[in-house]
Design brief:
This protein is an alpha+beta fold. The chain has a domain of about 40 residues. It has 1 helix and 3 strands. A 3-stranded antiparallel sheet has the order 1-2-3.
Length: about 60
C-alpha cells in the first residue's frame, strides 16, 4: 500500500520553500523540500522553480490538470 501523500499521488503535494540571495544585486535562489519524502531540489532562480511547479501540475500526458 502506498503512503497517502506519496509522489505517486498527484492530487496532493506538500513543499517547504526557502528563498535566499547573496546580496541585493543577485537573483533569488530556491531550495524546495518535498515534505513527505524530505527530497531536496535546488533552483538557481524563481523562474526555474515556477517551471518545475508548473510541470508538477500536468497530467502524465502533458495536459493541464
Amino acid at each position: 500500500m502506498r503512503p497517502k501523500h506519496s509522489r505517486e499521488n498527484n492530487n496532493y503535494q506538500s513543499y517547504l520553500l526557502r528563498f535566499w540571495r547573496e546580496n541585493e544585486n543577485t537573483s533569488w535562489r530556491v531550495l524546495l523540500v518535498h515534505v513527505p519524502t524530505g527530497e531536496e531540489q535546488r533552483f538557481p532562480s524563481t523562474d526555474a522553480l515556477f517551471l518545475y511547479l508548473h510541470q508538477q501540475t500536468l497530467d502524465p500526458d502533458g495536459s493541464k490538470k
